[in-house]
Amino acid sequence: MAAWNALRECRLQLQLLGRRAMSTALGWDSGHFDGPPLVDYITRKNPCGVTPETVAHAELARRISRLKWCQDHLVVPIVEEWMAEGNEITRYGLIIVRHKLRRRKRFHHALRISDWIAYKKRVIPYDHKEALNHIDLVSRVSVTRAREMFDNLPADWKSREGYTVLLSMYVRHSMAADAESIYTTLKRWGLRSISPINMMLTLYQKHQVFWKVAELIRDAEEAGQSLNMCSFNILLPMTFRAGGVAEMESLVEMMESKNFLDEHTYCMLASSYGRAGMVDKAKEMLMVVEDGMETGKFNRLRRTYNVIIVIYGFIGDVEGVKRIWDITSRMDPTAEDYICMIRSSAKVGLFEQAESGFLALAAQRKMHITVCNVMLQVCQAGNFVLRAESLLRKIHQMGFKPDPATYHHLIAIHLKNDNIQRALDLFQLERQVFRVPFELSPQERKFMSTEPRKDIKPWVGTCRMMMLALAERGEVVACETLFRNWRLEKWKTDVRLFNALLRAYEVAREPVAGFMERLEADGVEADEETIGILSRLPERPLIKQLH
């Protein structure tokens, strides 16, 4: 109810805000500090057009893109080889290369170029703008290093732009407390653009903190900043989650009156309709985008096609997945294109198409852990247990390190086939790999088979899935032990884990004492499911809880 009231208040405030030019639209995810804008936010067109310089450097970007994700150390040798062939490196040319690599999410490769510019080849003067560009790229790879670089900047370089880069980094990595601290600093200095507010809206959308949205809209009004198309597109899914389809459609009417409808709006509408079970409406929205890209109303962007094919997979439209992949496959598909296709094909049962995409990536030497994880999703959807175990062995053979997604899909596959022991073994292995190193004793460090990775944490959904599997068997002690070990690692705990634990007590028909106190001690608020299960539990104590 609080979220609903907050969104209603936002809607009233939105009606008071006028339309503002799109010049301050959110651009931090596209690298808007990178000199002159390469792609205009509204038109997505290169303002300088196609020149011999852009063509030559685009070829350099393609050469670098052919590298594997782990071969970033070969970026500078490729650039030097390209120069040895008689090509000239220019400031704008390197901006083009970096921009293309960023668009393909090759941040490690783009960072190698920025490091080369900063420490060796000063093609671009290392001034205030280039330093912020450098920090922004570093933030995609390492938050700690980016913060250290920012702290070492001259005092006069730590401007609003610099703090905006930090804010984008914290939002991207879901570091809410740090993001709010930076936003408070920017607000104290005076908000000169809508960008910081859009970033905070993105953060609150991700964490579903709806009650803080009204405050952000008031901040925009007090600063004289009008919400732009990006702001409304961020608010759209939040409105759906808090108020349902009716409130979402009401917001769309307001956006239409401001001429704020673009391809992203229709894609988010399709996703929301799909979540609401309104498949026909979702298809209608997607067809608007497809027709718009064919007629020129919307720009034909591969990332838009990727969003569409994922939504078609989500709503189970086989023909839609086939049609979009037929278009994308003729556009020199990237690794991301293949990943979206494989994921969508798995959801609609097109396993052969998914397998062909995986083999194509392997043939093009574009393999990395994300591709393997998507293929594990295919194995999960098709219940291919042996194929999944074989893929796990290949992951180790190729030198990749399994991440939380890898373990999540493997555990899901074995739980689906009732292989509880194998799932438990994988879960314990994941705990060993990702546990915090400084909490280990010297003896534990000595006998660990894998180096701990302190920058990555297992998914809370994996723990919940494992606990629910034990709960359905009524294994209260095993479920309590698993939950206790999870808390000892100081990983994220939410009400879903407590509900899974309660489910074990319910199946075993055992009472539980002091459960609400346990919730309060962890700062977790009970939901309707919690209250429902507690009301069904017996009152007579039969088992001693583990603490």
TrEMBL record:
GO cellular component, one term: mitochondrion
InterPro entries: PPR_rpt, TPR-like_helical_dom_sf
Highest taxon, organism lineage: Eukaryota
Pfam family, one: PPR
Ranges annotated as spanning the membrane: none
UniProtKB keywords: Repeat
Keyword Repeat assigned: yes
Molecular function terms from GO: mRNA binding
PANTHER family: AGL218WP, OS12G0527900 PROTEIN
NCBIfam families: PPR (TIGR00756)
Protein name: Pentacotripeptide-repeat region of PRORP domain-containing protein
